[in-house]
């Protein structure tokens, strides 16, 4: 008896599932809306930082990618949060006006958390090279990207490149 019920139920489920698909096809094709607008794109910038023997940094733009999407929130830039050694990445439009700024903690001297017997502690590590990335809302009139390093005397320009 069980076998007879299974024999009748399984084909009926298959028949109903194919019926729904064929019903969609009989009314015509279904159009899928593209919800991403042309202006909703994000640019990703991938950098490599190297420290030479004298201690000065050299930065290279390894890659830039533009992808569809919209940034949910733009990181706010607060000059008060910038400490010595941190990088300030600035996007500048072709006319010279700043589009956006971001703060990146010093990638060559990251702060690591270590668990010890006394509890958690933080230590600075010194690296000879590191990679870091930033993302910004894409704009057609992006001219260049510049990276500055915060020092005791203000900021030091490390890198400038046209996009």
**Elements, N to C (H/E):** HEEEEEEEEE
Named at the architecture level, the CATH assignment is Sandwich
Strand content is: over 45%
The mean pLDDT is 81
> Briefly, what CATH class?
Mainly Beta
Quickly count the domains: 1
Taking pLDDT < 50 over at least 5 consecutive residues as the criterion, the unreliable ranges are 20-36
List how many beta strands DSSP finds: 9
Secondary structure: helix percent: 10-25%
> Which descriptor suits the 3D outline?
extended
Protein name: Lipoprotein
Organism: Chryseobacterium rhizosphaerae
Question: Mind sketching the topology for me?
Answer:
Blueprint: H1 2-26, E1 41-51, E2 57-68, E3 87-93, E4 98-104, E5 111-116, E6 119-124, E7 129-137, E8 142-151, E9 154-162
Antiparallel strand pairs: 1-2, 1-7, 3-4, 3-8, 5-6, 8-9
How would you sum up this structure, described in words?
It comes from Chryseobacterium rhizosphaerae. It is a single chain. The protein has a single domain (41-162), classed as Sandwich (Immunoglobulin-like), CATH 2.60.40. Mean pLDDT is 81; it is low at 20-36. A four-stranded antiparallel beta sheet has the order 4-3-8-9, with no helix packed on it. The protein is 15% helix and 47% strand. The chain contains one helix and nine strands; from the N terminus they run H-E-E-E-E-E-E-E-E-E. Strand 3 and strand 4 (98-104) form a beta hairpin.
């Amino acid at each position: 008896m069980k076998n007879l019920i299974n024999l009748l139920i399984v084909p009926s489920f298959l028949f109903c599932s194919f019926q729904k698909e064929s019903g969609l096809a009989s009314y015509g094709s279904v159009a899928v809306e593209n919800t991403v607008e042309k202006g909703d794109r994000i640019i990703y910038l991938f950098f490599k930082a190297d420290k030479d023997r004298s201690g000065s940094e050299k930065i290279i733009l390894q890659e830039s990618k533009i992808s569809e999407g919209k940034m949910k929130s733009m990181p706010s830039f607060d000059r008060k949060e910038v400490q010595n050694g941190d990088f300030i990445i600035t996007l500048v439009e072709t006319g010279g006006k700043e589009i956006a700024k971001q703060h990146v903690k010093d990638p060559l001297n990251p702060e690591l958390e270590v668990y010890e017997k006394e509890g958690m502690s933080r230590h600075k590590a010194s690296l000879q090279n590191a990679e870091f990335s930033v993302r910004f809302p894409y704009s057609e009139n992006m001219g260049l990207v510049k990276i500055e390093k915060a020092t005791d005397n203000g900021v030091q320009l490390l890198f400038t490149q046209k996009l």
